[in-house]
Write a structure and sequence with these properties.
The protein has 1 helix and no strands. By secondary structure, it is mainly α. The longest helix has 41 residues.
Length: 43
C-alpha cells in the first residue's frame, strides 16, 4: 500500500505550497500598502 502514502504526501505538498503562495501574496500587498502610506506621509 505504497500509493496511499504517496497521495497523502502530495496533498500535504499542495496545501503547504498554497499556504506559501498566499503568504507571499499577502506580504507583497502589505509591502505595497506600507510603501504607498509612506509616500503619502512623505508628501
Amino acid at each position: 500500500m505504497h500509493a496511499g502514502g504517496q497521495e497523502r504526501v502530495d496533498s500535504l505538498d499542495v496545501r503547504s505550497s498554497y499556504l506559501h503562495g498566499s503568504t507571499v501574496t499577502f506580504g507583497k500587498l502589505i509591502k505595497s500598502h506600507i510603501g504607498f502610506s509612506l509616500k503619502v506621509i512623505h508628501h
